[in-house]
Design goal:
Structural class: alpha+beta
Order of helices and strands: HEEEEEEEHHE
Strand order of the largest sheet: 2-3-4-5-1-8
Low-confidence stretches: 1-11
Number of strands: 8
Distance between the termini: 28 Å
Mean pLDDT: 88
Number of helices: 3
Number of domains: 1
Shape: globular
Length: about 140
């Protein structure tokens, strides 16, 4: 009776908000290109290339906390969607980004600030999974 000891049990244990979820990263099925750029838009915002192989777009911005998607090409052909905090000056000038945060870390942080927004971002990722545009991966 070891039906529940398989891969599915692991997925059930890793839920948003849990410490284990912070080890999750969202990997895109293919790299960012002109054909799929608009498909990756979130909440009316577009991805913008800030350097070769690095794209960003705002996810959540308040006076005391902000979070941006950071879509990064890793070694080889792997692209991941991570998060970063931005340094914003003069109310609208982004001058710097923090180091990339794993997808799970960023979502958990957002969940602490705004559970509703975190649920919206999670639904965005679920939509990408359903469209075969990405998948969740556990980082070791």
């Amino acid at each position: 009776m070891s039906e529940n000891n398989g891969h599915d049990e692991t997925n059930e244990e890793i839920t948003p908000g849990s410490p284990e979820f912070e080890k999750m990263v969202f990997k895109l099925s293919q790299g960012v290109n002109a054909e799929n750029l608009s498909v990756l838009n979130y909440n009316g915002n577009e991805l913008h290339e800030i350097q070769e192989g690095v794209y960003t777009q705002p996810v959540y911005i308040t006076d005391d906390f902000n979070l941006f998607f950071l879509v990064i090409k890793l070694i080889g052909e792997d692209w991941i969607v991570a998060f970063a905090h931005a340094t914003i000056e003069n109310n609208n000038e982004i001058t710097d980004f923090s180091e990339a945060l794993p997808t799970g870390v960023g979502l958990n942080m957002l969940g602490e600030k705004s559970p509703e927004d975190a649920n919206n971002v999670l639904q965005y990722f679920n939509t990408l999974v359903e469209a075969n545009r990405g998948e969740w991966r556990l980082i070791q």
